[in-house]
Every structure is written in C-alpha cells, then in structure tokens.
Amino acid sequence: MPSQHTREGDEEKAPETEIGVPLDLPEFRVVEQMGPCDGILRVKVIAKTTTAQCPHCQQPSAYIHDCRERAKRDLHVREYQVRLIVLKRRYRCFPCGKTFTEPDEACGPRRRTTCRLRETIGRQAASQPVARVSQSFGVGPRFVGVCWQKAIAPQLAQKGLDLSGAAPLPTSRFLGIDEFAIQKGHRYATILCDLENRKVVEVSRGRQFFEVVRLLGRLDHPEVVEAVSLDMSASFAPAVRCALPHAQLVIDHFHVIQHVMKAFRKVVSSWAHKKEGTILLHHKQQVFLKAYEELTNDEKADLARISSRLPALETAWKLKEALRTWYATATVETAEAKLEDWIKQVREHGPEPMQQALSIFAHWKQEILAFFRFLPTRISNGYVEGKNNRTKAMMRQAYGYRNFQHLRLRILSGG
User: Fold this and answer.
1) What pLDDT is attached to residue 282?
2) Which stretch of DSSP H or E encloses residue 30?
3) Which residues have C-beta within 8 Å of that of residue 332, sequence separation ≥ 6?
4) What does each C-alpha distance from 12 to 2, 6, 8, 15 come to in angstroms?
5) In whole angstroms, what is the distance from residue 160 CA to residue 171 CA?
6) I want to staple 413 with a disulfide (CB 3.0 to 4.6 A). Which of 87, 146, 152, 380 is the partner?
7) What share of the chain is helix, strand, coil (3-state, %, to 5)?
8) Spatial CB neighbours of 165, under 8 Å, sequence gap ≥ 6
9) Rounded to an integer, what distance in angstroms lies between the CA atom of residue 327 and that of residue 372?
10) Which residues of the chain have pLDDT under 50?
11) What is Dmax (Cα atoms) for the chain?
12) Whole-angstrom distance, CA of residue 243 vs CA of residue 219
C-alpha cells in the first residue's frame, strides 16, 4: 500500500484505458494488442493462411523459413493512431530451393500503409487542402498527393483523360475555350471544355497562339468539332482557325452583352455626375442597369419617373434592352437584319460610349451571328465561365497553387 506521505511527482501514473481495435481485415488474425501508449495502438497480426504459392515455380509451400515483424500504419481509432505489427513469414520452396515472402493484400508490396488508409486519405484530399489532410493523418504532403492522384485516376480514365497530360483528348461537336490567371498579370492558363457533355477536357499552361494550337492539336478527332465558343480574345480566334479550320467560331452572347453594358454603365455614371441627374439617380443607378423583367413594381415606377426627366438616358436604356431582346427573339433568318437595324439606331441616337462599343460588331459580326446558327442548342461559354469561377475560388481557398500539375488535376477531377 503506498505511503500517505508520498512526495510530489512520485505518484504512479494510472494506466490508459484499453481499447479494442475493430480490425476488419479478414486476411489477418489478431495475435496481440498493445496500448494505447503515447497515443498509438499497436496490434500484432498474422495472415490466416498457412501456405503460399512460390512466385518462381508456382508451387505451393508450407515450410516456414523465418518470420519477421513489419510495422504498417492503419486508419485511426478515435484520436489514436493504429500501428499494425504484421508478422510476415518467409517460406522455402523445396522444388526450386528458393525463399519468398508471403503476399500482403491488405497493404500491397513494399508498402508501409494499408490500402484502406491510402484510399481514405485520397478521398479526403479530394475535398480538403493537402496541408490539412497531411496534418490530420500525420503524413507528408507528398504522400497525400500520391494517394489523391491514385484516387482520382479511375475518374479521369472514365472521362477519357490521363494524369500525365500527354494523351490524345476526347473530341465533341461543341467546344468552349477560355483563359484564367494563375498569377495575375504574369502567368495564364487555358481551359478547354466539352459543351455538349459539360465536362472539362484539358487545362494547359499559357494562352499564346502556339500554346493554344498545341492544345487543340491533341484532339483525337478534330474533324468532329462543329463549333468553338470563345470570347473576343486576340489569341484564341487565330489559333482555333489554324488548328480547326472547318469549325465555326461562336462569340458567346454573354461577352457581347457585357461589352455593351460596360459602355452603358459609363452613360449612367456620366448622367449621375451631371447637375440634372445627380439627385434623380442618387441610389437609383441600379434601376437602369438591371434587366427590365427583374425590376419590381416600385423600381419600374422609378424608371418611368427618371426617364421622363432624362430622355437621353431613356434612349440609351432602350437601346441596351433592345440588344437583349434581339438575342432572345431573333432567328437565323432574321438575326442579321435586326442587328443592322440596332446598329443603325445606336449610330443615329445612341450616346458616344455606346457608339464606340460598336467596333466589336465590325470585327466579329459573323462570329456573333453564328450564335443563332446552332439554336436551340445555344452554344455559350457559360459552363466554361462557371468552371473558371470555381477555379478562382479554389485557388483563393488554397492561397494559390505552386504546382500547376496539382491545380490541373483539381480542375479535371471537379474540384
């Protein structure tokens, strides 16, 4: 019985509570369980089989040459790490006289972790930052990356893609292409999407002419491509014409409206700074910038009231809405005539910023009208822009990616 006058620090430490580990590995039999000690549970196991097939002569053997311990990491149990102490037996094959080690299906050859641990790490890395998964499992970030790449490999193979980025790319009738900044103002990447099946085909470095041509040159059946949707980029259009001369270029309607809206915003802002419009447009500029069908009854009343006092602004607003109506109602037969009529109205009655915005219709008229050739499919870069926004959010959450290959695989696997 311990003395009642035990000095401070001499007390015996209470043993940790024993924890039963749910092994759930049918190929092993538990020999002994130790711990927990220092936050680690150690479980000694041995294979249930008593014979093994010789890899040299394919003959079965039951003669045990020796047995050695091998430590393997397994899934956590609550807050405890689990170490499997695998008793690996070496057999001697009498027909060929050679020795061999019994196979380890739970971990794989020359592996220090179980398959299910690597699979779990790979699944978690698909939705969490690598650093967080690395810290959670107490493994290195490079190992987490390897587990994650192995986990997404079947998913990429199902899409016809590969990890290396060198294999031919699957081709569809309608493609979308766009760029995004890896490092703002310095480095860019190009994303190529299948608009028909709504999936990312490839992500490659750069946006220059030769880089885009090289990307499109990897398409396995380029003759299948009927149309490519893109923005009004100076590098994309020449590259697509060079690599896919038979494909129709389609300027996305969102970018056309966005371009005209940028000019219209200047018009609204200029009126808001004029003497006659300062009070009328105070906290009311959004009424003119929103689509008419999205306005509330009160906003429609404000629109009518301000328009009656500022007729020039009302004219600009009507021209902006007329372009939206053209996109919504025109057909392949009527599109060109209605567009010419709208351009004429802008030149005659439109404010200067909107007249300057007409330059895109001189340079890209046929590509803009091509949008109506593929109705009701409505080829647009909406899916590509959505992927770009998701990519930018993903890059912000990760504070950027130093490894472009890692970023590429993140995008191809869906996030």
Assistant:
1) 92
2) strand 28-37
3) 372, 373, 375
4) 10, 10, 11, 9
5) 10
6) 152
7) 45, 20, 35
8) 202, 204, 405, 408
9) 9
10) 1-16
11) 107
12) 10
Residue 311 is encoded by which pair of tokens? 């007729």
Q: What is the pLDDT of residue 261?
A: 96
Token digits of residue 279 = 């009070």
Tokens of 167: 């294999």
Rounded to whole angstroms, the Cα distance separating 364 from 357 reads 12
Asked if 389 and 413 count as a contact pair (C-beta separation under 8 A), the reply is: no
Strand partners, 219: 169
Label residues 294-323 b or e (16+ Cβ within 10 Å = b): ebeeebeebbeebbeebeebbbbbebbeeb
- The tokens describing 57, both together, are 């002569």
What was the pLDDT predicted at 158?
A: 79
- What φ, ψ does residue 158 adopt, rounded to 5°? -65, -30
Asked if residues 45 and 23 have their Cβ atoms less than 8 Å apart, the reply is: yes
Is residue 62 packed enough to be buried (19+ CB in 10 Å), middle (13-18) or exposed (0-12)?
exposed
- Supply 18's token pair: 């024993």
Q: List the structure tokens of 25.
A: 């590995």
**pLDDT for the residue numbered 213:** 94
Give CA–CA dist 309/284, Å, rounded: 14
Res 10: pLDDT: 43
User: Can you tell me which residue has the tokens 């499109």?
Assistant: 216
- For residue 266, the model assigns a pLDDT of 95
Q: Which residues of 237-272 are buried (b: 16+ CB within 10 A; e: fewer)?
A: bebbeebbeebbbbbbbebbbebbeebbebbbeebb
Looking at the DSSP bridge assignments, the partners of residue 298 are: none
Query: Residue 102 corresponds to which amino acid?
Result: E
Strands (E), 162-299: 174-183, 187-194, 199-205, 227-230, 248-251
Q: What is the structure's pLDDT at 185?
A: 67
How many CB atoms within 10 Å of residue 151? Answer: 19
Cα separation, 255 vs 381, whole angstroms: 9
